[in-house]
Design brief:
Shape: flat
Distance between the termini: 10 Å
Structural class: mainly alpha
Number of strands: 0
Number of helices: 6
Largest sheet: none
Helix content: 55-70%
Order of helices and strands: HHHHHH
């Protein structure tokens, strides 16, 4: 699948979370969203810099991110299906990213965050849990990226036929 075919396919399957997506479909669309993020960020930087508001509005990149959020999630979901995993696995890093601030908030870490001594956040049992959680966040990101890079399962799986074996 080419760069252009991937973009067309992902926008055509905007809300399609069933089926499978090949590696090329996912990674070309990932490249498209990354380049769009850079392009619109650069344009906004130039516009906001010229207008004298360096922290000004980010309407262009916001609109681009909003337009590509669902198809990016959908193609990632289908990509996980292609490697034989549930699309829910995409959310592994988010579980820890949501859980860690909640843990810090529940057990009094907000007082430590607002104090001038941030090193105290990493002391004692509380600190060990925070450090282990940060390590799990990093590892879960790498695991999800590793799964996204795995080759397609040959033949059909529970999520549908192999995209390489189906004529487009």
């Amino acid at each position: 699948m080419t760069f252009t075919q991937s973009i067309k396919t992902c926008f055509r399957k905007y809300f399609t979370f069933s089926g499978r997506a090949s590696r090329s479909e996912y990674w070309w669309f990932f490249l498209f969203t990354f380049l769009g993020f850079l392009f619109f960020g650069f344009i906004e930087g130039v516009i906001n810099g010229a207008s004298g508001t360096p922290g000004g509005p980010t309407l262009l990149s916001g609109a681009f991110n909003l337009a590509t959020f669902v198809p990016t999630l959908a193609v990632g979901w289908r990509r996980m299906h292609d490697s034989g995993r549930s699309g829910v696995y995409l959310f592994y890093p988010l579980i820890v990213l949501v859980g860690l601030p909640n843990f810090i908030g529940i057990f009094g870490g907000t007082e430590l965050l607002t104090s001038s001594d941030l090193a105290s956040l990493f002391e004692g049992a509380f600190g060990i849990i925070v450090i282990v959680s940060l390590i799990i966040v990093a590892l879960s990101l790498f695991i999800v990226v590793f799964w996204l890079t795995r080759p397609s399962q040959p033949g059909p799986n529970t999520y549908g036929p192999n995209p390489h074996e189906v004529s487009q």
